[in-house]
């Protein structure tokens, strides 16, 4: 009989969003007139911007004409996009990343999971708790549940920032600005991690999906702003949240040429070459039209439009944050991230708070426990709804007698 990858059987069922949907459905069935406001969504709601749409249309027309039609593109992404990325996201900010270190892809979810393909199974992988579930689940798919996966607890005591592990960790996933806690790492904090990784010859997998939401200029937007990070870190970037590409699908991963490790025989290997080999074997590139859409993000008009979308969401984040603080809640995040992370009042648990917020305020959020055990007692609200709905929701919370 054929066999499966039994690691998949060790994965916990992902009940979070299905449980939320079932609870909301049940509530609306018994309260058909309730005006439910969703502050639980981790998806954008504003449409892709005009500059992006125009570029997309032009690219579709090119594909429909014999002279400009394009078949398979480079697996690493088209040069026109990789050059724009290197120049705008890095070189203009004084970071020496070159197009050859950039791999265009169809999403950071895939890349943060697939990166495990080029890593050895014996690595100890450190993952924060609470966490974006992809890092943990893809690690379990690859090596199974084992003591080679360690959790770094993030709690109120450490400001929801992980401590550097005391035991050996070969690989660590960091995501800043963070989903779900909305917290950020200062330059000094991130430098501690880079210095630790260099000293221990460990690898940092840095998910910067939310860098565009950083308002404070002191907060690093890329791990490569830290000296020598190109020798110990891979960075993941996505157009999903800043440019509204969750349904369009485009992202990129930076694997610096300076990032190297050694085989047990002492032979030096370049991760850039390995990832290139992996991508050219298993991936045939992101659609041409989508890469043209991403290119438009870098035009002056595109940058302006994307900035406006991000500002719109950050205005929501600010409304949520201020409102919750006024109500007396303990609040984290929401200043440089589209997520506000709050402590459930009176030591309550996440699901009880979810139920009360739904039943008494008709607002849907996300229970912190859904992101890991350390998330128990906390709750995530997102800034991706409309400003009108967000204001209405906060008004309801303010008038709520708990
Ligand atoms: C939304 C999100 C991404 C982006 O994923 P895509 O596959 O590019 O849409 C990456 N990391 C985190 C933590 C996210 O929340």
How would you describe this structure in keywords?
402 residues; alpha/beta; Aspartate Aminotransferase, domain 1; Aspartate Aminotransferase, domain 2; seven-stranded mixed sheet; four-stranded antiparallel sheet; 11 helices; binds pyridoxal-5'-phosphate
In short:
The protein is of the alpha/beta class and about 400 residues long. It has helices at about 15-30, 50-65, 80-90, 110-115, 135-145, 185-200, 270-280, 290-295, 300-325, 350-360, 385-400, and strands at about 35-40, 100-105, 125-130, 150-155, 170-175, 205, 235-240, 250-255, 260, 270, 330-335, 340-345, 365, 365, 380. It contains eleven helices and 15 strands.
Describe this structure in words.
With 402 residues, this protein is an alpha/beta fold. The protein folds into two domains: 9-47 and 302-398, Aspartate Aminotransferase, domain 1 (Alpha-Beta Complex); 51-299, Aspartate Aminotransferase, domain 2, CATH 3.40.640. 37% of the residues lie in helices and 15% in strands. The protein is built from eleven helices and 15 strands. The chain has helices spanning 16-30, 50-63, 79-90, 108-114, 133-143, 187-200, 271-282, 288-297, 300-326, 350-361, 387-399, and strands at residues 37-38, 102-105, 125-129, 149-153, 171-175, 203-207, 233-238, 251-254, 260-262, 268-270, 331-333, 339-343, 363-364, 366-367, 378-382. A seven-stranded mixed sheet has the order 2-8-7-6-5-3-4, with helices on both faces. Strands 11-12-15-14 form a four-stranded antiparallel sheet. Strands 1-13 form a two-stranded parallel ribbon. Strand 11 (331-333) and strand 12 form a beta hairpin. It is globular. The termini are far apart. The model has no long low-confidence stretch (mean pLDDT 97). The structure holds pyridoxal-5'-phosphate. Residues 107-109, 132, 175, 179, 207, 209, 238, 240-241, 246, 251 line the site of pyridoxal-5'-phosphate.
């Amino acid at each position: 009989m054929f066999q499966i990858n039994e690691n998949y059987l060790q994965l916990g069922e992902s009940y979070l969003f299905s449980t939320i949907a079932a609870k909301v459905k049940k509530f609306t069935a018994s309260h058909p007139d309730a005006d439910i406001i969703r502050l639980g969504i981790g998806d954008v709601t504003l449409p892709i911007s005009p500059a992006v749409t125009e570029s997309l249309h032009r690219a579709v027309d090119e594909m429909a004409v014999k002279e400009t039609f394009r078949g398979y593109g480079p697996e690493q992404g088209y040069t026109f996009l990789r050059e724009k990325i290197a120049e705008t996201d890095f070189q203009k900010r004084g970071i020496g990343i070159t197009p050859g270190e950039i791999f265009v892809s169809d999403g950071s979810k895939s890349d943060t999971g697939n990166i495990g393909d080029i890593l050895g199974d014996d690595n100890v992988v450190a993952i924060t708790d609470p966490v974006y579930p992809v890092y943990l689940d893809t690690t379990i798919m690859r090596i199974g549940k084992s003591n080679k996966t360690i959790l770094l607890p993030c709690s109120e005591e450490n400001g929801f920032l992980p401590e550097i592990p005391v035991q050996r960790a070969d690989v660590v996933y960091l995501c800043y600005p963070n989903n779900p806690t909305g917290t950020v790492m200062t330059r000094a904090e991130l430098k501690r991690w880079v210095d630790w990784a260099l000293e221990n010859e460990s690898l940092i997998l840095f998910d910067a999906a939310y860098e565009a939401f950083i308002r404070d200029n002191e907060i690093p937007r890329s791990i490569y702003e830290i000296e020598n990070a190109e020798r110990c870190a891979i960075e993941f970037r996505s157009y999903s949240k800043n440019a509204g590409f969750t349904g369009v699908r485009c992202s990129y991963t930076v694997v610096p040429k300076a990032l190297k490790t050694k085989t047990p025989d002492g032979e030096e290997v370049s991760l850039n070459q390995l990832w290139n080999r992996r991508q050219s074997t298993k991936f045939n590139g992101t659609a041409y039209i989508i890469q043209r859409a991403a290119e438009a993000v870098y035009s002056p008009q595109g940058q302006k439009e994307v900035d406006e979308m991000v500002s719109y969401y950050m205005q929501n984040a600010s409304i949520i944050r201020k409102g919750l603080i006024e109500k007396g809640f303990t609040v984290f995040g929401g200043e440089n991230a589209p997520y506000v992370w709050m402590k459930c009042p009176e030591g309550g648990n996440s699901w009880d708070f979810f139920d009360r917020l739904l039943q008494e305020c008709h607002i849907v959020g996300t229970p912190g426990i859904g992101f890991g055990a350390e998330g128990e007692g906390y709750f995530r609200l997102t800034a991706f709804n409309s400003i009108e709905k967000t204001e209405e929701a906060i008004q309801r919370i303010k008038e709520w007698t708990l």
